[in-house]
Structures are given as structure tokens and as C-alpha cells.
Write a structure and sequence with these properties.
Elements lengths: L4 E5 L7 H9 L8 E6 L1 H11 L5 E3 L11 E5 L16 H17 L2 E5 L4 H4 L7 H8 L6 E5 L4 E4 L9 H4 L2 H19 L5 E4 L13 H15 L4 E5 L1 H4 L2 H4 L4 E4 L2 H12 L4 E5 L4 E5 L16 H11 L3
Parallel strand pairs: 1-2, 1-5, 2-4, 3-4, 5-12, 7-10, 8-9, 8-10
Antiparallel strand pairs: 6-11, 11-12
Helix pairs in contact: 7-8
Length: about 325
């Protein structure tokens, strides 16, 4: 891939992301790739100063001016009175501008995108299920895949931010085959690694008293199709007991049928030592696995592990 730039969207202006990146960059003397922040320089500096996490910033007007071994920033104006406040719809135009500028850069340059946390309720306003889907729409991509990555074990929800009552309707053979295939290709392309994938069932114990069984009619035929194509995949497994150590040690990735079925166990096992990767976009998109964390604004107590993990992951990519 030979990526040259790491584009970092600062995201929700009133979040702990400034603290998190401050804890990372203030002690980094050498950076292998050129880092370019997209967001309000003044707000970032004011927040970093308040947190005693200041690091040197090099303001540039376009990505080609970026320098190595220093954190560059393209300033996006944001009118604010307080350095910390509650998230409101007032920040929407600012966040949209940050994404628009970043996507223009990504169209013309080989980059990795990291976006800071976004308050979905206000920014997405029910128009998109999540930032994963927002970016897919903006890049005209279909069948994108969410992967919560850790080098020891990763998970992927077949459906993302939808109500539980709608999950069964969204489970299809084509979606299972697409998601598993893209995950398998991702590991082959970026890590040259053949992986073993587990697929979970939908119903408790993979059984149902209903006349229609998703396991029998959808999940099992999909797994058979994938196995016949040479994919190393097994299942369906009952989710209630799958995440025991003796089971997860046998697999690299677990594909679940819905969001909390796999993200709950993942966060219990790895805490913030994981990152959200969107597979299928024209570029690699990474989101540290934490939200705006408004309850800890300005307290200098946020855990930066996920951003550290994101930067370590990027070092492995050419």
C-alpha cells in the first residue's frame, strides 16, 4: 500500500480525544509516517494546555507541506467560547468540514484515516447507522465490514447499530459470505496470514422453537459455501459459551450476528487494546475503540490505550 500520510480527524470538539492524542504525541520524537491532524488548532491547543499535554504543532495549508517527525495540522475553524461543553448540533458543520477536507485528501493521496470519536446522536441524527456507514456512503462503497481488531483475536458484527428486533431480518447468506470473504482477504493482503474464522449462531444454543431456523436455513449453508471455496471457517457456535479461553485460542476472528454479541466479550477481554477498522473502503480507516467520554472531559484520566494500539497497528502496514 505504501501509505505516506496518517490523517487524523479530531472529531467531536468536546471529547477526551485531545487528551488521548496529547498523551501519545508529547513523548514521540520520531514518526515513521507524516501525521496530519484535521480540526481546530486553537481549540486543540487550549485543551492540551489545560491538560498539561502540549506538543508541538506545525500548521500547514495542504497535505504536501507536511513534515516528518512533527505533528502537522490543517486548521478547520470552530467558533467556541468554552474549551469544554456538552455536545450539541452546533458542532455538526465543523465535523462535516473536517470529514469533507479529509476525504478530499484521501481521494488524491495514499493515506490511513483515523477519526476521533463522534457523538452519533447529534452528528448522524439517525441518517446513518454509524461513522462506518457514513464513510461508506461518502465514498460510494457498499458491503463495508466492521472489524474490531486485536492481534490475538478480532471480532466482526454482521449487523452494526440496528435495533435487536431487526437483526434477524438483516441476516442473509450473501451478507455472511461477503463479510467473511472480505475479512479473510484483509488478513491475506495486509498480513500475508491465513486465518481461522468462527461464526456464531443467532439463537440461544443455536436452536429455536420457531418454524424457521436462521442457523439451518442461512448460517450453515453460508459456512458450507465458504468452506467449499477454501475459506477456513467453522460454526455456527453458541455465543453463550464460545468466548471461553479454550475456544477463542483456536481462532483469529469471530463473526457474530449482531453488535453486542461480539463487542461485549471483546471489550471484556481486551479493554481498550483494540481498534475499529472499516474493511472495504478505498483507504484504511481506523477508529480508536472509545467514545467522546463526556463525563471525563478535562479530568486527565482517560485511557489512551486504543489510540496507542492504533498507531502500533499502523507501523505494521507498509
Amino acid at each position: 500500500m505504501n501509505t505516506k500520510y496518517i490523517i487524523v480527524i479530531l472529531g467531536e470538539p468536546y471529547s477526551t480525544f485531545s487528551e488521548i492524542i496529547g498523551k501519545y504525541f508529547r513523548n514521540r520524537k520520531k514518526l515513521k509516517k507524516k501525521v496530519v491532524l484535521i480540526g481546530s488548532k486553537k481549540l486543540l491547543l487550549d485543551q492540551l494546555k489545560n491538560l498539561n499535554c502540549l506538543f508541538k504543532l506545525n500548521e500547514i495549508s495542504n497535505v504536501h507541506e507536511a513534515q516528518k517527525n512533527i505533528v502537522n495540522i490543517i486548521d478547520v475553524k470552530f467558533d467556541f467560547k468554552k474549551i469544554y461543553s456538552q455536545e450539541t448540533f452546533k458542532s455538526n458543520d465543523y465535523i462535516k468540514s473536517c470529514f469533507k477536507l479529509s476525504l478530499e485528501i484521501l481521494k488524491k493521496n495514499k493515506c490511513i484515516l483515523i477519526n476521533g470519536p463522534i457523538t452519533k446522536k447529534t452528528f448522524l441524527n439517525k441518517k446513518y447507522l454509524g461513522i462506518t456507514e457514513y464513510l461508506a456512503k461518502k465514498t460510494m462503497v457498499k458491503n463495508e465490514v466492521m472489524l474490531i481488531y486485536n492481534s490475538k483475536l478480532s471480532v466482526s458484527p454482521l449487523t452494526t447499530h440496528i435495533p435487536i428486533k431487526n437483526v434477524a431480518k438483516k441476516i442473509t447468506k450473501s451478507k455472511i459470505i461477503n463479510n467473511v470473504s472480505k475479512i479473510n482477504d484483509f488478513y491475506l493482503n495486509f498480513f500475508k496470514k491465513k486465518i481461522k474464522i468462527a461464526v456464531l449462531g443467532l439463537n440461544p444454543h443455536c436452536e429455536t422453537t420457531d418454524t424457521f431456523s436462521e442457523e439451518d436455513k442461512i448460517i450453515k449453508p453460508s459456512i458450507k459455501y465458504l468452506k467449499d471455496k477454501g475459506t477456513d471457517v467453522e460454526g455456527p457456535f453458541s455465543a453463550d459459551s464460545f468466548f471461553l479461553k479454550k475456544n477463542i485460542n483456536k481462532f483469529d476472528v469471530v463473526v457474530g450476528m449482531y453488535h453486542d454479541q461480539v463487542l461485549g466479550p471483546m471489550k471484556t477481554i481486551f479493554n481498550f487494546n483494540a481498534i475499529n477498522i472499516t474493511i472495504g473502503l478505498p483507504f484504511i480507516r481506523i477508529s480508536p475503540d472509545h467514545g467522546p467520554n463526556k463525563d471525563m472531559l478535562g479530568k486527565n484520566k482517560s485511557d489512551p490505550s486504543s489510540f496507542f494500539y492504533a498507531m502500533e497497528f499502523i507501523k505494521k502496514i507498509k
